[in-house]
Please model this.
Amino acid sequence: MTQKKYQAHIYVTLRPSVLDPAGTAVESGVQNMGYDNVEGVRIGKYIELTISSGSEEEAREQLDRICDRLLANPVIENYRFDLNEVSATMNAGAKA
Model:
């Protein structure tokens, strides 16, 4: 089976019920700069990776397991990801 490459963009954020002290600190700092129209700051993680797989469905299943077991703490964090197939021309350009 031919392997395809996929680019994943993963977003990990705290669940809404979890306090976010880093977000609160950033919100306070931004407001102290005079931007009192900013509120509800939440801090998260952004991860990019490339995965090779026989199908998009298989890649999504693998990414779901990776996120659930390693990249996010499912007790306090949510995650989502975007997955796009890497075209052969993009792939060749990256090797140059």
The first helix runs from residue 21 to 32.
